[in-house]
Amino acid sequence: MSDTIAAIATPPGEGGIGIIRLSGPDAQSIALKIFRPARAGRLRSHRVRYGHVIGPNGAVIDEALLTFMAAPHSFTREDVVEISCHGGALPVQLTLEAALAAGARLANPGEFTMRAFLNGRIDLSQAEATLDVIRAQTSAGLAVAQAQLGGWLAREVRAARAALLEPLAYITALIDFPEEGIEPQAVAEPVAQALATVERLLAGADQGMVIRNGARVALVGRPNVGKSSLLNALLRVERAIVTPIPGTTRDTLEETANLAGVPVVLIDTAGMRASDDPVEQIGVERARSALASADLALLVFDAQQPFTAEDAAMLSATAERPTIIVWNKCDDPASAPPPAPEHPRSVAVVACSARYGHGIDHLATTIAATLLGGTLPAMGTTHLVSNPRHRAALRRAVEFLRAAQETLATNAATDLLAADLTGAANALGEITGETVGEDLLDVIFSRFCIGK
């Protein structure tokens, strides 16, 4: 990391401000080659200077503000310069080109964050949380990402890993120096403590991943039961066309809604029925495909109509999918809905009225709770593992720790215990980056944008 990198740090397109970021040992000297301050004087750390960006030919590119952050008090722990110019595509691009012509190198995707990790400012879980903050779709997802960026997961994982290192050192010494009469040390207790911590972290991982990644929910049913009206009601906008004519919806329609903090892709589908209309047949087939890819089905029935053979067919069509049975058109909240039909994967029954809004909030929270494993997390809960890589590493750590406990219980060979403890420590180290290879780092940071 002896070179200095540069990149545009703001999204493409027009905006009030465009930022070009430089990081590395020559960030200040390169900046002074392309920036002419309005007043003479050296750059002071964490102070903003006004001036103009100058191109290689000496012409003014734009007026700008320059902020210099001296190492180690910067995001990367290197000298960092940020030049804020007008947010048009051309001044931003020309400013970047001027920086490159003055000696900077174009940054790779995620290279600024990688330097922050390699220089010890953040660990790998915090680096990944940086991307989660950028990509958060709901306030709940943002809160979970911000908590991880704050380091709670790193602290938990490091504590569990540290609990294993002393017994691992003891077991290794027994193997390497069997004649030395080494003082006995406790092994079972720290292994049990580490296992309890890892299992506690895993317990909330499924919820955390749904909050981070979202889920797909298909609205299915026979024609004219009000699926499109339900979609509009859940979205709080008129997104789908609604008419009293059966078969109005001919194709799938996908829209994302924030349901109790969960980003949910709601998929409105064509009513499933036998038809000679080739266009409607295509719509029905796409509805089946949408159902097959969904994490949850909303099976919608019309509470004002008798239960039909087409309704019964929908029970079979959704039999392999977790399903919420929705009685729509319960326009009188004082009237009880019809009894729920038998369904092998039914997780809840909700009565509502898309027309008048009765029960829509209850339906939204039921969808979110179902996707989160049956209950909504307590208000303010942010300490949830939300990254699939972290969950996989925690699961491997649990396997190694349980194997270690079995080895201790059966007085099996000491080298087996050492292998189990090493495996658990390495799995935990993968989360924070202490035991991770360059190939995995390249994969992780390649997901970032160039300016981050």
UniProtKB/TrEMBL annotation:
Which InterPro entries does the record associate with it?
G_TrmE, GTP-bd, GTP-bd_TrmE_N, GTPase_MnmE, MnmE_dom2, MnmE_helical, P-loop_NTPase, Small_GTP-bd
Give the binding site residues for Mg(2+): S228, T249
Name one matching Pfam family.
MMR_HSR1
Residues the record lists as binding K(+): N224, T243, I245, T248
For molecular function, the Gene Ontology terms on record are: GTP binding; GTPase activity; identical protein binding; metal ion binding
Provide the cofactor note recorded for this chain's UniProt entry.
Answer: Binds 1 potassium ion per subunit.
> Which cofactors must be present for this protein to function?
K(+)
Class of this enzyme: hydrolase
Domain TrmE-type G: where? Answer: 214-372
Q: Which UniProt keywords apply?
A: Cytoplasm, GTP-binding, Hydrolase, Magnesium, Metal-binding, Nucleotide-binding, Potassium, tRNA processing
Binding-site residues, GTP: 224-229, 243-249, 268-271, 353-355
Gene Ontology cellular-component terms for this entry are: cytosol
* Biological process terms in GO annotation: tRNA methylation; tRNA wobble uridine modification
Keyword Nucleotide-binding among UniProt keywords: yes
- The catalytic activity of this protein is classed by the Enzyme Commission as 3.6.-.-
Where does it localize? Cytoplasm
Q: Which domain of life is it from?
A: Bacteria
* Positions bound to (6S)-5-formyl-5,6,7,8-tetrahydrofolate: R21, E82, R121, K452
What is stated as this protein's family in its record?
Belongs to the TRAFAC class TrmE-Era-EngA-EngB-Septin-like GTPase superfamily. TrmE GTPase family.
HAMAP family named among the record's database cross-references:
GTPase_MnmE
Per its database record, what is this protein's job?
A: Exhibits a very high intrinsic GTPase hydrolysis rate. Involved in the addition of a carboxymethylaminomethyl (cmnm) group at the wobble position (U34) of certain tRNAs, forming tRNA-cmnm(5)s(2)U34.
Q: How does it assemble?
A: Homodimer. Heterotetramer of two MnmE and two MnmG subunits.
Q: What name is this protein filed under?
A: tRNA modification GTPase MnmE
